Fold this sequence. Notes:
Layout: H1 2-26, E1 36-39, E2 42-44, E3 48-56, E4 60-67, E5 73-74, E6 86-89, E7 94-100, E8 106-110, H2 112-115, E9 124-134, E10 146-157, E11 163-165, E12 169-171, E13 175-181, E14 190-192, E15 200-203, E16 206-212, E17 220-228, E18 231-240, E19 246-249, H3 267-273, E20 295-299, E21 304-307, H4 311-315, E22 323-324, E23 328-332, E24 338-340, E25 345-352, E26 359-366, E27 369-379, E28 386-387, E29 392-406, E30 409-411, H5 413-417
Parallel strand pairs: 5-10, 12-18, 19-21
Antiparallel strand pairs: 1-2, 1-6, 3-4, 3-10, 7-8, 7-9, 9-10, 11-13, 13-16, 14-17, 15-16, 17-18, 20-23, 21-22, 23-29, 24-29, 25-26, 25-28, 26-27, 27-29, 29-30
Amino acid sequence: MFKWLLLVVLFVLIIAGGGVAWLYRSATPDMLPEVKVTFDGQELAPTAYKWHVPVVGSLFRRTYAETLNSSPVVLEDAISDASPDIIVTPSDYSTQLTITDADKETVYEGSVTAFRSYLFAENGTFDAKLVVTASDSAAEDSSSVTGTETWQFRFTVSIKPSVTLCTPTVQQGSVAAVRVGSTMSRTEPTLTGPLESTGFVRAANGWICYLPIPWNAETGNTELTVTADGYTETLTLSVRAASYSYKDYSTKSQLTSPYIGADDAPDAVRRLLTTDGGEIQWAVGGFVQPFLDSFDTPLLYGMTEYVGRSYSERSTNYGYGGRTSTNVVIKPKKSKDSMIVPASGHVLLAEDLGGSYGYTVVIDHGAGLRSIFYGLTALDVEAGDDVKQGQLLGTSGRTVVAELRIGTVPINPLLVWRGQCDGLKYF
């Protein structure tokens, strides 16, 4: 009887073994899952896998494992988006993504889903390892394939900041503006060209540079070169001629007084023109004229005064010895009129400089833009004050000389006060 039972057991084992062997042979590679991974639109090839194909439920599985590439796959196309997409199809696998920088420091570690909110903080070369896992706990039934597949790849993040010439055409005496988007390196862009500037300052979503256009700037196209995050872009700015007036006198005593030329600024003012500018202050409210009442302008920005020109020189507007104003001489309707702050800022200077300068005020509006007023008879502000647009500034004299400068370059105050300077509308 025992021998009979033994033979039966042996027979069953042989039949079962044959069945298992048949099932094992039936667990072929075509049963392995097909997982597709794309990174920033580029399809990735796996570098290794280890899958377990069920033979007898979850009790016995056939393993397929292979290392396809021992080195990271190098992506040909650079990444130009700070938040590139990585897509795993099918999407029901668990994922683990690890990204390291060139110094082997981990910059991201987590799931593919969480990676959607990650932003690269700098350009450079990065290594990534993605492991896709199908586990027993996640499998729908015992006949599901479990295991892992791995992708290792190397990619370069090269995000070019946007560069915009906000004012393609600008007239003499006005202001051009160049905007650069956020830089990955967080370093200040640079601008080179024939026009002076105080450089870029922080602005909304990036940087901005204001370029003062002198009254006598050469007209026509001017090339500006902007460098940011290692990228260089050339912009073409068109400068058009402004319309300036002139006056003729027979004697020097008729010249407008007081006259403060571009190079006549006192040392106390000149020293302030080259100091670093603060944050942009005119973004709220812009600029207004410094007098509530109307006023006359006996000398305009860009106006040239001549003495003793001949009739032919006057008729052709030609001659030597003229002096050209780079500020505005204002004559209020009433003497000792109240003056207000034209735009918010920080008072750098408020004192009596004597002579033709009188009580002088210098206000820093940020980004190198400064208002200068000469000829006041009383002051309502002090150096160090933070002032708001419309705040009482002081009392004028018979005339006031008003300047606006970006760095050391004078621009036309009337254009700014009247909202006709488009460059300063960008911040």
